[in-house]
Amino acid sequence: MPDFKSKSIYLFQGILSAESFKKLKLSKQDHAFVSEGRPSLEAGRVTSAILLKQGITPTVISDNMAGFLFFKGLVKQVNLACQYADENGALCDTGALILAVLAKKHKVPVKLLIAERRHRFVGDPESILSFEGTRIASKGTHGYVPLVEWVPAKYLKE
Amino acid sequence: MSFESPLFWPAYVKEDVLYVLDETLVPSKLKYIPVKNVKGAVAVIREMKTRAFGQFLVVLNTFLLELNPKGDLLKHLQDVAHQLNNSRPTFPFAEVTGIIIGSASKAAAGGGDVRMTVIKTVQGFLAGIRARRLQRVQEIADAMKDGDSILTHCNVSGELAMAASLAVAQGKHVKFYATETRPYMQGAKLTVWELHQAKASVTLVADNAVASLMAEGLVNKVIIGSDRSAANGDIANKIGSYQIAILAREFGIPLIVLTQPSKGVARGADMPIEIRDGSEFLVFNGKNVFGPKVRGFYPGFDVVPYELITKAIAINAGL
User: Fold this and answer.
1) Does B111 have pLDDT greater than 90?
2) Which residues of B touch A63 (CB under 8 A)?
3) Of B101, B224, B88, which Cα lies nearest the Cα of B157?
4) Quick check: B62 and B16 in contact, CB under 8 A?
5) Which of A44, A49, A67 sits opposite B246 (nearest CB)?
6) What is the pLDDT of residues B217-229, one digit of tens each?
7) B151 touches chain A (CB under 8 A)
8) What global pTM score does this model have?
């Protein structure tokens, strides 16, 4: 298990704007989990850089590891990158719905933070076929890359 | 004729050498690593050159490589079993080696030929497993219905691809979505490749896109494998399986799991979960992907509680 002292810590997901961190009370946090955000990994990189500037050590996980963290009671609060929100729910960076469902199941609070503005809702299908510029998937493979997803309000209420 | 992927039977013995498919190189290369002793076998397991069913084959076949020690054969085989049992924590190595040690001990106690007993046990066991896996492939194909859109995670060692080829041959139109399965990307490397080879339609998605697929109604069934089963029906499988199971239940999508029932542990919580070195996750092609000050955390597996499993397609592996 990670060697942070707190029983559970914050989990960040999506490409968050630097502005959004100002609204978070991070003073008592010394560690945080950051979901890497395939395919671009921008979420992992941007959020980690912002956390490091604030003296918080980021522990990056792949997007499929969040369930394990919830199962083990390691998540104190989920912070999601949100493009838009109203009373019906929120348009968030892809991956948010997984975390919101897990948060509801495990009774962990969810906070919406301002995301970097998306100019596309669906990414380049080729982007998931490679990792850091190296082709991974075999020739002829089709990819599908949703960049945003709707998170219904029922998963966001504490 | 159904398609048999190299991943269906990724290790074999020829002239006292065990050849193990290096799954980390698939699909760009089909290269087999020659393994000559238990030390080599432990190395290919620890370095994840093989995994899942490949580990099972490596464990059983390794005993065939270790039948000519200088000293007492049974003691030597027990030492071989001990080394294999301690190679990785989550897969039930001790249950597999226990089959061979049990037969060898019985032969030794009865004054029988331990060497021949081990050879016959391994060969008989492998033949039986192959037959039962083929039978399970048929069951998986039967579970695939015309029009299905199936999500899968990681890789189920050739069985899904073979079942898909059977379904295609039966005239069923079945689509697949495969998760990338970070950090080793077995979905991107292995699953999409072998489903393609099986002439099935497959689309690769990031691990974070699973809820999108389900919410948009793009999948109506989930099929995954398992590395270990508990007596109560809980399973351990590649990291990410738990959240997929939670989502499948939330969206009313049936979850089918390919299992190897075992009574070795009572429940999922009793299964040791391997935590691998975080650097394996952070470093790619020798480069630190997220920068030097960032930590990584890499649990290799997670547990799916039996309540979340709609149907288990079991194979009796004698565990």
Assistant:
1) yes
2) 182, 206-208
3) B224
4) no
5) A67
6) 999 999 999 999 9
7) no
8) 0.95
